[in-house]
Amino acid sequence: MLRRAARLLAAVVAACASVALAGITLLAPAVPAHADSIRDGEYWLSEYGIQKAWDVSKGAGVTVAVIDSGVNGGIPDLKGAVAGGTDASGAGQADGQGPIGSEPVHGTLVATVLAGRGHNPDGSPAASGSVGSDGIVGVAPQAQLLTVSTWLGSPNPAGRTDADQIPAAVRWAVDHGAKVINMSLGSSSPDWPSSWDDAFLYAEQKDVVVVAAAGNRAAGNIQVGAPATIPGVLTVAGLDRQEHASVDASSQGVSIGVSAPAEQLLGGLPDGNYAQWEGSSGATPIVAGVAALIRAKWPQMSAKQVINRIVSTAKDAGAPGHDPIYGYGVLDAGAALTANVPETTANPLGSIADWIRVHRRSAPATPGPSPTGPAKAPAEDTPLPEASVPVPAASADANPWPAVVVLGFGGLIAVILGGGTWHVLRLRRAADAGADGGGETGDGAEGEPSAEKS
């Protein structure tokens, strides 16, 4: 219990120092890891029906945008996967591939889980259209990625805030052919700046699937925060290895659509090494990858049909039907690609166009230039209902600290990378076996507090 308290205290300190950032905490020094053990560790590929889904689709022809801290497309597992990019922060590389912000490794971790292609045993990239035998293979290994780098979680040296960066990133992704947008980021508030309205409306009108992270209790996010509260967005909650709602690596709220694995994940780092990580940030690209598989199989299928197919084939969990812990249930990628799903006339998760008509009566309901400056949603918004926090079976380690964090920081609306990530463990490729990695830096947020894993 003392270790858990220390970890939560570290999260509070990080929040004070960097506006509620769910910082990456190194759990242990780097350890040697053979590449085949990395592939073997991707348990979600078999346990969540993804390998079954590959019999139908691997995502060819679909473009997915990763709005994050930058994606290094030069590492072996992503060679040929990144088709383009940009920087929305004003502080990064023009092509969006330079890791930036308070969690610079975050975007590459997300991208490898989504569309990694692995590599050959000699370290060379996999041939075009194929998957290498070693390294990370993503859920949609034949999809193309767009990277949009953003500076989130700490002051942006270029001065652009999340109120400016997020709508610019979404619009750029839509205009450059993204059919799915992955947003493994979040905030501590269910409200969002009015400057985001038009961008998300634009994505909805252009038939783009937007997938976002629910957030993490370990970082103080008891309730889902924006953009995962925006109507029409497919919000992803996190699960532990037993397919139960994760106590630390998830959140709760009525906007949750589906649940996916968020613990004991593996991903690639910008330097070509690997990391073990946890958080709904990792669950999100798994679901976004399934959306890409569906769009590749049925190119004419609408975004609302894609989302409906994912949530309606999910395995019910928790309270019967939709609930604020699991959403519609546990992801079943195989069923999402093979089941007979009736068509729907509406997105089961709502519509931002309808929300704007009701809640932004004085604002136009057509996409136009985004206003500058953050603004909270109107007071008439219905608050998210409270829900019981899941407690791990046979555990006496639960405590009320996360609620204290929310009471202290619930009003913060700065966007945080790590809606998903709250800790990372460095792993090394076989080529680095025997090297001492315990003192390395550059793959985590500089100055972030360290906490021991309980």
TrEMBL record:
Give the matching InterPro entries: Peptidase_S8/S53_dom (IPR000209), Peptidase_S8/S53_dom_sf (IPR036852), Peptidase_S8_subtilisin-like (IPR050131), Peptidase_S8_subtilisin-rel (IPR015500)
Q: Which residues cross the membrane?
A: 401-425
Gly residues bias: start-end ranges: 435-444
Question: Which stretches make up the Peptidase S8/S53 domain?
Answer: 59-329
Catalytic site positions: 68 (charge relay system), 106 (charge relay system), 281 (charge relay system)
Looking up SUPFAM superfamilies in the UniProt record yields: Subtilisin-like
Region annotation (Disordered) maps to 362-391, 433-454
Entry keyword set: Hydrolase, Membrane, Protease, Serine protease, Signal, Transmembrane, Transmembrane helix
S-adenosyl-L-methionine keyword on record:
no
Alphabetized Gene3D superfamilies for the sequence? Peptidase S8/S53 domain
Q: Say which domain of life the source belongs to.
A: Bacteria
One Pfam family of this protein, by short name? Answer: Peptidase_S8
Signal peptide interval: 1-22
Q: Which family does it belong to?
A: Belongs to the peptidase S8 family.
Which PANTHER family would you find in this protein's record? CEREVISIN-RELATED, PEPTIDASE S8
Its name, as the record gives it, is S8 family serine peptidase
From which source organism is this entry? Sinomonas terricola
Q: What is the lineage of its organism?
A: Bacteria, Bacillati, Actinomycetota, Actinomycetes, Micrococcales
